[in-house]
Amino acid sequence: MTDGSEQDGRRRRLAAWRKAERTLWRAPVESTVGERLAALAAAADAGSATGVYDLDEWTDVYGDGIVAELERRVARTLGTEAAAFFPTGTMAQQVALRCWAGRTGNATVALHPLSHPEVHEGGALSVVSGLRTTHPTAAHRLPTADEVRACDEPFGTLMLELPLRDAGFVLPSWDELTAVVDAARERDAVVHFDGARLWECAPHLGRTLPEIAELADSVYVSFYKSLGAMSGAALAGPASLVAEARVWRHRYGGQLFQQYPAALSALLGLERELPRLPEYVAHAKVVAAALADGFRAAGVPWFRVRPEPPHTHQFQVWLPYGAELLTEAAVRQAEETGVALFRRWFEDAPPGVAVTEVTVAAAGLEWTRRDVLYAVADFAGRLQGQEAGAGPTAGGPRPSP
């Protein structure tokens, strides 16, 4: 932001997004504590239309009750023998990869350098779990079968992030995915899916969630990234692996006394958001195409929508401006017009280029192509005004035809 502390900037952004009349996505962080708890209890009560659990039941203690019910529901949804709830995905994946290292006798994990453990976990795989990593490819996509076969050292586990978030939420085709899994098997390796966003992969892959999960030896899924839960994750796979993972979960400090708010919100997400994800994925393609056409019409000197079309309901947008300028334009657009087209922007290579992630969810379904084009024109005008040192021209939100 151009002024104030980072905390002040965050509060300003949240206030702008919260008050926006039109947005592509309503993030859970836009609610207050009281609002979130009240909405959760009202929506999740078994006596309501969307109810998922009897709120007169006792709270959980060390993973029983509602947590155990969530684990059963996840295993049933993914078609696996069992599932274990974890407070974080970082812990779930470390436990999974550590268990497989013990079973295969090989502590090397083959994964993409842009995968979550390599970029966002502070080297935890090696520092905490004693694992090594190798990279079959550095291209901005998942590795191919040939790249897995050509990996120059043995590995016990191949980890595939589906979709690969930092490369633009990209996915392989179904045939490519099955070929990669087969290549790992040829090397006597097990396969683990980092499925933090696995829930929305089915439309692109053209298969059901159980069919996708069946390819791997284990799968991790997140509850808050796509399903809108408060927090939490699950590790799913064979019953013997999940039983071992529960032991390691305790050793890693993940055997929490009570977790019923997170579990309840996860059950609600499975019930309410999961069935709608294909709808979000389809509309994300409409939004992405309109964004590209809008940038072209506005004369933006260079841009990228990646991938085009999107593989899931999330994708990246790249623009040749500084992140601070882009974020300021996005916040001002929300504040002055009630339209939140983009959220926060971040600097990335090459220098002078910034990237943002676009999510299309329930709120985004109201946007027509015309709405997107109008919002892009307004946003681009703000960029040009800020670059010239003039105040941007603000316009009100344009209604859908």
TrEMBL record:
Keyword Cell division: no
Family: Belongs to the threonine aldolase family.
Protein name according to UniProt: Threonine aldolase
Classification via InterPro entries: ArAA_b-elim_lyase/Thr_aldolase (IPR001597), PyrdxlP-dep_Trfase (IPR015424), PyrdxlP-dep_Trfase_major (IPR015421), PyrdxlP-dep_Trfase_small (IPR015422)
Source organism of the structure: Streptomyces chryseus
Cofactors named for this entry: pyridoxal 5'-phosphate
Lineage: Bacteria, Bacillati, Actinomycetota, Actinomycetes, Kitasatosporales
Domain Aromatic amino acid beta-eliminating lyase/threonine aldolase, residue spans: 61-292
Keyword entries, A-Z: Pyridoxal phosphate
Record has Hydrolase as a keyword: no
Any Pfam family matching the protein: Beta_elim_lyase
